[in-house]
Protein: GCN5-related N-acetyltransferase
Organism: Candidatus Gallionella acididurans
Amino acid sequence: MSNPFTVSLVCWHDGEPLLKSIREAVFIREQGVPAELEWDEFDKSCRHALALSQRGEAIGCGRMFSNGHIGRIAVMQQWRKKKVGTAIVEALLDYARAHDYKEVDVDAQTQALPFYRGFGFAEQGEEFIDAGLPHIKMTLQL
């Protein structure tokens, strides 16, 4: 059975309204991240993965910096546990491999460590707080 969603790589200019809607719902409203910490100058230079339902609803996203840092992985609550996050990370990893990145990293929320371990990411260093939430840096050799 095919997925009831698609994941595409987009630039910020093309995906901004949809990407913002997901991140506002997940990070700002659900997780309580202050808006001033959510929005930064890096979105314009990142490659973004955007997941859409078959009906065209924005259901998940993530971004990758040119240095291989993955961030802002977010999936709308009703779409969790349906492989949307997996498809987003896979799309970003495929992009990294296609562009000959040797390593990627993510600052993973501690509750998401098992998710990233499933791709082969390994913890690096100590837990730290970002936007009020505990994180651990994880890396993956490609």
